Every structure is written in structure tokens, then in C-alpha cells.
Amino acid sequence: MSLKFADNTADAIPLHVIAQDALEDWLADQPAPVTSWVQATGFTAALGSALAIPDADGAVSMALVGYGDAARRARGRFHVAGAVPGLPKGTYRLHGLPADQAEVEALGWLLTGYAFDRYKDQKPPEARLIAPEGVDAARLEVIAAGEALTRDLINTPASDMGPVDLEAACADLAQSHGATIEVIRGEDLLKQNFPMIHTVGRASAQAPRLIDLRWGDAGPKLTLVGKGVCFDTGGLNLKPGASMGLMKKDMGGAATVLGLAHMIMALGLEVQLRVLIPAVENSVSSDAFRPGDILTARNGLTVEINNTDAEGRLVLADALALGAEDAPDLMISMATLTGAARVAVGPDLAPYYADDPALVSALETAAAQVADPVWRLPFYAPYEAMIEPGIADLDNAPKGGFAGSITAALFLRRFAGDTRYMHFDIYGWSPDAKPARPRGGVGMGARALLAALPEVLK
């Protein structure tokens, strides 16, 4: 797959981006053969449509991409990317694209080059794009590579992406950027006070572990914490088979923070970056943890287990407690944590929690600019009582099912201490193919965060 722009060349094929209400005027300025061809094919500039126009010898002389109308464009993103599969092989130069959309549309084109081909040959579109004028091509290529890393990690099944493999992926990333990595495994988790990571992962054939990657020695401290549950059976509260089918993506939080970490390091942002990933498999065995167990977390809080299928917040809790000990300027957790978040906002929006108004403003402004939509949900304090069972400090799965994403976020906040904190409850999966996003693993919120970081960390 190619996630890079084509080299500039004088013989690139002109590709005209045309809105529906501009088609008639555009045709009025074209030679008669071009006008006749467009009219004969019935091209209307509908959003995502593509048309190649031949010269007298039958070669492609130019091509058109339909840009629809404003109402249609508002219902999606990466509109030019939607037309790329309909273009012949070749190198293209864009004309007529609104300047404020050039970066997003160029990135979307790059992402059409992604294909998950580990187990089967895949053929992404062969149309290549010269970076539009004024676009930072190198930056977009880095972002596309980070997104591809996230997608590859999520798409890889647990047979090849267990805790051992996730650790290896982190080590490869660290090596490529000159970062350091430390890993605490198995019984050493108990010796070094990570009891909940150990408890959740101890039933698996692959030992649980905490991966700690560090990069940069100047600038604000930024800590990213990603849920690395490489497969989730539900534990003794076993999931039904239909609910287990996508559980290879339960490490989507880890995959997303690793993609974001690649972007940060490759772009050389001036931050002291730390990435914490509790990597486990929630399995069933004779030593699996049980409903009714009470665990003591790294920070001393006790947790009653009312459902072993609410394991992600347990492993994140120990990692967040560790992160808070370092007093970072900002700590962000990302996790495929609750079905409640998906019911609330669907698969496209990245729900997040934050109390800092400046952080919220910067993130939402950035999200709109880079077409990486987010949606704020509340750390609603009156629901704190729902996660306090009485027999222990906290309940990992409050009964009743109300406000499931909010109560999970409140649970996690108990372990972030006084740190400036943000939590993402993402889905990490595109259930249907869309422009620049094939069905499968997908990053959510990372590009918005990358764009917001300079503002929130200054």
C-alpha cells in the first residue's frame, strides 16, 4: 500500500473538483468535445462521483470529481476520497478544491491507499495524488502512517496480537523513534504493585504486562494510557458468542495511542511523552478472577467485582495511578470501554470526558478542522454514588445499566488523582466501508488530539 504523495510531475492528469451548482459554468469554458463527453455520460457532479475524459487517442486527458452540494457534504467527510476508486490508474493534480478543504481531502486520498493485507492480497486504488499547493505533505504522510499503524494493530486477530505481540509492536515503535521501553510482566506486576492488571490477565496463557514507553526530554509532560485487552471473553461472566466476535478490537485504545505516539514522535513535538499500556487477555481458567471478589488497586482503593466483563477499567486504573505519580501536565486515556457509548453516539463519533474548558475548546476546534469528530459527555458528579457499592470503595459494574459510559469514566477519574485528565471511550471500528475508511479497525480522536496539543500544552 502507498500512503505517500506522488512526486511532482509536469504530465500529471488534471483532476477538477466540481460542485453540482458549478458544473454548468465549468462546462461553458471547456472545448466542445469535453462538454459533449460529460453530457453524454450523464455526469452531474454528484458527491463522490468520478469521470475520466479521454483525448483523441483514448488516453486520459483529465478527470472530474463530483463535490455535490453543501447539504450532502455536511453528512460525511473525505469526499474526494470517495471518488478515488472510480479513477483510472495515474498521477493526479487537483484543481478547484476549496483551500480550506485541501488538507482534509488530501489526507483522505492518502488513506484510500490503506489495505490490511497481512493474510490476503488486497488491491487499494492505484490513483496517486500530488500534494495540493500549501499543504504540509510530510505532516500528512506521518498522520496517515500513524493511522495505518492503529488500523493494522486493531485488525490483527488475537492469534497474532496477544500481549506478547502488542509488546513487540511497542518495542518496534520505540526503536524506530529512539524511545525507551520498560515492561513489567507476570508475577512482577504483583511485586511492583499493579494488582489489578495482574488479576485480570492471570488466567491467560500469555502473561499480563504493563508496557511503559518514554520519549523526549523537554517540554510539557504528556501521558497517554491505552487499554490493551488483546481479547475479551468476558471472563467468568462469559460473553455470548455474537458479542465475542469483535473482541480482537478490545485493544483499540492501545492501538490508537500508539498511532498518536507515532505522529507525535515523527513530527518532533516538544513534549515529554509517556505511553502506558496494560496488555492482557481476559480469559477463563482455574485462576480467573470472580464476581464478588474485592481487589485493591495500586492507589489503595478497593474495588468490588460485580462483572468480570468490566475488566478494561480495572487494568486502566492501575496504569492511570502510575501515570498520576509522575504529575504529568496532561494525561489522556483511550479505551474501547463501554457499549453504552456506542449506543449513545454510534460508531463515528469519539465520545470524550474532560472538565477543563480550555481543553474542551481546543479539542473541539481542532476536531472540526481535521474532520475527526468528537462528542463531549459529562463527568456527572451526582452519579458518583452509583459506583460506590458500600462493601468496597468502588464497584466495577454498577447494577441497572444506566449511564454506563459515564460511570466508567467516573471510575477511571478516581485513579487520575489531581492530574489534568481526559478520557476517550471509543469504538475503534468502522462497521461499514466509507470514504478513506474501509470496514475494520480505525483510529478515533487521535488526529483531533494531535492538532489540539500545541494549544492545550502551551
UniProtKB/TrEMBL annotation:
<dbReference type="InterPro" id="IPR000819">
    <property type="entry name" value="Peptidase_M17_C"/>
</dbReference>
<dbReference type="Pfam" id="PF00883">
    <property type="entry name" value="Peptidase_M17"/>
</dbReference>
<dbReference type="GO" id="GO:0006508">
    <property type="term" value="P:proteolysis"/>
</dbReference>
<comment type="similarity">
    <text>Belongs to the peptidase M17 family.</text>
</comment>
<dbReference type="InterPro" id="IPR048816">
    <property type="entry name" value="Peptidase_M17_N_1"/>
</dbReference>
<feature type="domain" description="Cytosol aminopeptidase">
    <location>
        <begin position="307"/>
        <end position="314"/>
    </location>
</feature>
<dbReference type="InterPro" id="IPR043472">
    <property type="entry name" value="Macro_dom-like"/>
</dbReference>
<keyword id="KW-0464">Manganese</keyword>
<dbReference type="GO" id="GO:0030145">
    <property type="term" value="F:manganese ion binding"/>
</dbReference>
<protein>
    <submittedName>
        <fullName>Leucyl aminopeptidase family protein</fullName>
    </submittedName>
</protein>
<keyword id="KW-0645">Protease</keyword>
<dbReference type="GO" id="GO:0005737">
    <property type="term" value="C:cytoplasm"/>
</dbReference>
<dbReference type="GO" id="GO:0070006">
    <property type="term" value="F:metalloaminopeptidase activity"/>
</dbReference>
<keyword id="KW-0378">Hydrolase</keyword>
<dbReference type="Pfam" id="PF21337">
    <property type="entry name" value="Peptidase_M17_N_1"/>
</dbReference>
<keyword id="KW-0031">Aminopeptidase</keyword>
<dbReference type="InterPro" id="IPR011356">
    <property type="entry name" value="Leucine_aapep/pepB"/>
</dbReference>
